[in-house]
Amino acid sequence: MSDSRDQAMENARRRAGWTALIQGLILVVLMLCAFRAEVVKVVEQGTTMVQAAHVPAVPLLAGLLLYQRRAVLAQALRPGSTWGLVLIVAAIGTYALTTWPFYVGYVRRMQCVVALAGIALAVGGWRVLWRSLPIIGLVALALPIGWNTFSTLIIRPETFTLDAATAVLDQLPGTIMELRGLDMHYLRDGAEGVIALGDPHRGFAAPVAFLMIGMYVIFARVRPWWQVTLLLAALAPLMALGNLVRVVLHGWLTMRTQADPTDGLPRDASMVAALVLTFLVAWMGAGVLARLVVDADGADELQVIAIAAQSGERDDASS
Amino acid sequence: MRQASAPVAKNHKHGPSMSRPGLFAVCAAILLLAVLGLEPVLAALEVEYGKTSILPRSPLGAFGLNALPSFKLAPEDSPFLDLQADDDVGTDDLLFLRMQEKHASGMDGQIYLFVTYYSDPDDRVPHTPEVCYRQIGGIVRKSGSASIVMPAGRDLPAEVTARTVIIEQAEANTVIAYVFCANGRFYTARNDVRVALGWPGEKRVYFSKIEAVTRSERGEDTSAALQRCRRMLEEAIPELVGTHFPLKEQLSRR
Fold first, then answer.
1. Cβ-based contacts of B15 with chain A (< 8 Å)
2. For the segment B42-89, what is each residue's pLDDT rounded down to a tens digit?
3. Is residue A261 reached through a cis peptide bond, with omega within 30 degrees of 0 on the bond before it?
4. What residues make up the domain containing B24?
5. What is the model's pLDDT at position B59?
6. Based on the structure, what is the number of domains in chain B?
């Protein structure tokens, strides 16, 4: 009797999950069509601009996160909230206003994220929205920031990274480095040369890619909040480290091969190496923390949610 | 089945909620309306209420140097910065002057005045020096703002706030003060210019970027260079507003 009741509940939960997923997908497709002008622009930028090269990876990472968090999302499923509808309407209104008469590109672009949050809320309720925030965050990172905002944000990290990379490379035996503008000039074993970091952003759009990797690693597994907080706090230093490694490697490879300042090989090789390193550091850090919490508490967040949900079901059944 | 629906039954504390199919249908209908109607409606609104362009009262090329009593034209053979007016500034109506402080000689006290004027509402608000100079290898070392007191005059505010930037380049530091003027109002951020251009009321729009660029040797105190930039804007803005930019009443007429 109890088995068949559990089976019926499980089937109902599964059906509710699938319904929510299909409804969510339909609303996402409609949202993409409604905001098509901006979506096309983002896709174009992602496929043509070096500084937005991380954009094509976002659907894949978001899809992976959705898959890896499917159990916790299913557990969090509740009736949709009309506040989701409010968010969707607000996103459409703001999108319209920032198309005409006030054209503000980044605000207009961000309405895709607001609408996405509204869809999660309308389809699955507040808990689903809360659990979907990492996925929505990844999508937000995929939307290229305006040049002015980017420049304002990057000035300090860029200055720090270039100064630090110059100082590190200067320690190499037989090497004298000097930073002129955004280019590093070197004198090494009698050979002179320039290390130019490349595209108009001088590769300083890369931190967004490091940030995305860090976010993916943190949220690929359901963790207790103290872990998430610790790991999120570690994102900024991780991003800085990844970028510093990239610039130092770029410089070292350029000097080592005496490559032309605009040669793409040192730039691409250093970027790939820095991305792999960032992933490994984030993965190892998150792994150590995960091991600690299992040892300490004996249960992860998913188990806690499952226990809470079962207890809720029992309450509902008894009432 | 009653029991099976229990896990999705409690949600009253999180605000208003309705049955999922109903909410989904409303969301889908609204998004579908946006798919079908958003672009045509916005296009129609723009045709009906969109703002039109307005030319300057007098072209910037006719800028009177007498308006800059603290400066004289710099000698042609002594450029202190290899600065060129960009080909892709997006307008032909521009002013690009290389000046020098009245009592200075050689390369001392030289300063550029760079003004662009845009009259098409669809023109892109130009990038600011923080962005442009980074692309040619400059490092933004410091940015801030400077208040510039204006003389009493028609359509002139009592004070204009300009943005100041110090950019480290290969040879020396470049010191810049700039401000945007959109329909007679002054801003330092591009988004503020965009909002000003879209704000209801006026029927015609223009905007302009006014930029003073000078040089400061590496390691040198930049206050003298900043002061030079301020003085240039202090003298140039009244002339631009008073002689070249459209009057406020012209903006409200079609």
1. 81-83, 126
2. 999 988 888 999 999 999 999 999 999 999 999 877 766 666 666 678
3. no
4. 20-49
5. 94
6. 2
